[in-house]
Amino acid sequence: MKTVMLGATGLRVHPLVYGTLPLGPLQAAVTPEEGGRLIRYALERGVNLLDTAEMYQTYPHIRAALDGYRGEVLIATKTHANTGELARAHVERALRELDRECLDLVHLHGARVADPFTDRAEVVAELVRMKEEGKIRHVGLSSHFISAIRKAAAHPEIEVIHPLINRTGMGIIDGSSEEMAAAIAESAAAGKGVYAMKALAGGNLISSARESIRFVLGLTGVHGIAMGMLSETEIDGNVALFETGVTETKLWEDLEGKRRKLRIMQAFCKGCGMCVPACTNDALQVVEGKAQVDEETCILCGYCGAACPEFIIRVV
Ligand code: SF4
Ligand code: SF4
Fold it and tell me: Same structural domain for residues 237 and 282?
């Protein structure tokens, strides 16, 4: 089984990180039992880092996967809190719902801010405090901003970064794929662990999945990639690709033929506009009382779904 050191954390991880976002209610909404079965399938094939977040609502899926499992599993979660108090509540909830005494990694879920260290300084301070209390092993930062990744590279308390990067740069808010790659290399050189997200731009690059994954895996400083996986076939294909670089043609042609899109159930849309500021890509607007998505700029992250009080936005 292939493993790599996650920067200077001392954590040894499989480069294929299980991204649990697509399992939860913001995306495919599979049951905890079904999601747990898929996660367990991946764990039994060597994957050992699970990526989740307060916002993803996938703790029940992870809990189901770990029921009776004896192997080592690392869990990374994220808090989108803007206050220290709320960040603590998010960590406490993760500990409770995942039935853990300590979380391996907690990220400042920084996707919506260019400078989370200024905007949310008290959140970073609270996470560091909880690390001192033994509730968190490592503190990280996830972001779609190059500027935030650069700041993280120089930040003494940030040990792991989780940046958005893909071949086309889709979803990077303040620059190009090349500039994000340079920030990632800088972070890794500074000893940060790096596992990337959105290598397939939320599914938009699915038709060139193999090329797109190889691109991100080949970047200097990338130790792993979080991949959302919804079937055993996807897990098998990714494990083989990440471990050996070998891809089975038929399996990957089938995977690359799949399409995903954002669905807004227009009949139930109240036109309130609460989803619009939730999108860092400016892909949403309300037109004649109904939310509309610009499919050219949508990276299928599903974050707008969390902001909709009517629960009518899904990545399908
Ligand atoms: S429209 Fe929704 S799913 Fe698409 S990028 Fe914006 S927040 Fe993400
Ligand atoms: S938040 Fe939901 S109800 Fe409000 S405009 Fe957006 S999709 Fe419609």
Answer: no
* Cβ(226) – ligand 2 distance below 6 Å: no
Cα of 313 vs centre of ligand 2, distance in Å, is 8
CATH of the domain at 168: 3.20.20.100
Q: Is residue 36 located within the same domain as residue 62? A: yes
Quote the ligand 1 centre to 93 CA distance (angstroms): 26
Pocket test for ligand 2, best of 262, 275, 285, 315 (most atoms within 8 A of CB): 275
Tell me: do 177 and 281 sit in the same domain.
Answer: no
The protein residue with its alpha carbon nearest to ligand 2, atom 6, reads: 275
pTM for this entry:
0.90
* Residues 280 and 176 placed together within one structural domain of the fold: no
CATH number, domain with residue 271: 3.30.70.20
Number of domains in the chain: 2
DSSP the chain: ---EE-TTS--EE-SEEEE-GGGSTTTT---HHHHHHHHHHHHTTT--EEE--GGGT-HHHHHHHHTT--S--EEEEEE--SSHHHHHHHHHHHHHHHT-SSEEEEEEE-TT-S-HHHHTHHHHHHHHHHHHTTSEEEEEEEES-HHHHHHHHT-TT--EEEEB--TT-TT-SSS-HHHHHHHHHHHHHTT-EEEEB-TTGGGTTGGGHHHHHHHHHTSTT--EEEEE--SHHHHHHHHHHHHHS---HHHHHHHHT----EEE-GGG-----TTTTT-TT--EEEETTEEEE-TTT-----HHHHH-TT--EEE-
**Residue 277 lies in domain:** 262-315
- Do 235 and 300 share a domain, yes or no? no
Could you tell me if 30 and 129 lie in one domain? yes
List average pLDDT for each run of 10 residues in the chain, which is 316 residues long.
94 98 90 98 98 96 97 96 97 98 96 82 97 98 95 96 94 93 98 96 87 97 97 96 91 88 89 94 95 93 86 83
